[in-house]
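Database export, one record per block. Field names are fixed; values are copied verbatim from the stored entry.
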Amino acid sequence: METGIFNITQWVYFTFNYPEPKKMFAEIFGSLSDHIYNKWLSYDCNFNRLFTELDRECQRKLARYVIENYHGVDGCKPSAK
């Protein structure tokens, strides 16, 4: 349960503090990056809206990226409780 709460918190902080989006999308989505970047722009840069519009595979890629690369919440390490 603690990991799930941590991951949700990590996601929320990420949506307010994301890195360079164009570069990040290229790293995550490869050949789809321009398409997904433009989709994100059309949603007023809203990551939650984008996430709901992605297919399951792209949702997993984005979520995995945030979990593995975003280090803004207490160093991004779940507590060992």
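Remark 1: The mean pLDDT is 86.
Remark 2: The first helix runs from residue 2 to 16.
End of record.
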